[in-house]
Structures are given as C-alpha cells and as structure tokens.
Amino acid sequence: MTEGELVIMIMSGPDDGRKIYLSQRHGDGFISTDGSWSIALGRREECDISIPFDTQVSRQHAVLRLTPDGQLWLMDAGSLNGTFFGQQRLEEPVQLERGQLFRLGRTWMRVQDETHENNG
Q1: Radius of gyration of the chain from Cα atoms?
Q2: Residues in contact with 25: Cβ distance below 8 Å, sequence separation at least 6, in sequence order
C-alpha cells in the first residue's frame, strides 16, 4: 500500500466483496493542515465511501484518517446507530490495522492490504 492510497472491502450486504479504491492523487477525501488524509463514510452519495443500501448508516456516519506517519484511525462522526470495532461501539477514535473488521450500521468492512493495479 503506497502513501495516500486505501482499499476498502465491503464484507456484507448487497455489495459484499466489492473493493473501493481511494487515492489522494485522484482527489478522494480531504487533506487537513497536519497532513492527515480523511475519508468520509456514510449513506450520502457525496461521501467518499457511500453505503446507500443500509438504512442503519447515517448520512455522515464515520471517518477513516490516515496520518502522515501511516497510522490508520477510525472515528464515529456522531452517527445515530454507532460505529463498531469488533463488538465494541466506538466512543473515541481507535487505531486500525489493515485487515481488521469494522461495522457501520449493518455493513461490515475492512481496509485491505493492497493497491489497485491500474491507478496510474
């Protein structure tokens, strides 16, 4: 996985098995002043990762943040139904390792440890 790229795999629901390729180079997400790259997850079409089929997902549900030193953090964005890491509902940001499962609404997903072969 190169800097500024993430691959998210949907692990449940109608999009089970779908991979979502995100790249700073292609304008995905938002880069903050400290250099962190944030990815919005939610039901809205404008989210970087849109999950429109899950009515338990809020319009702006959660944020994945990749720090300049390569740490990956998951945080809830004030969602009604919560963001879960394992069986725990997030009360504060949690650091993720690639391959670990997390859930928004009824949708399980994980960050893959790979890059897109054709993103040049």
Answers
A1: 13
A2: 4, 5, 119
* Amino acid, res. 2: T
pTM: 0.89
Return the structure tokens found at 75. 């945080």
Please state, in angstroms and as integers, the Cα–Cα distance from residue 13 to each residue in 17, 78, 84, following that order. 9, 23, 16
DSSP 50-97: E-TT-TTS-SS-EEEEE-TTS-EEEEE-S-SS-EEETTEEPSS-EEE-
pLDDT band at 3 (very low <50, low <70, confident <90, very high): low
Q: Which of 86, 108, 84 is nearest to 15 (CA)?
A: 108
pLDDT digits (tens, 9 = 90+) for 58-105: 999 999 999 999 999 999 999 999 999 988 999 999 999 989 999 999
Residue type, 80: L
Which of 45, 46, 83 is CA-nearest to residue 61? 83
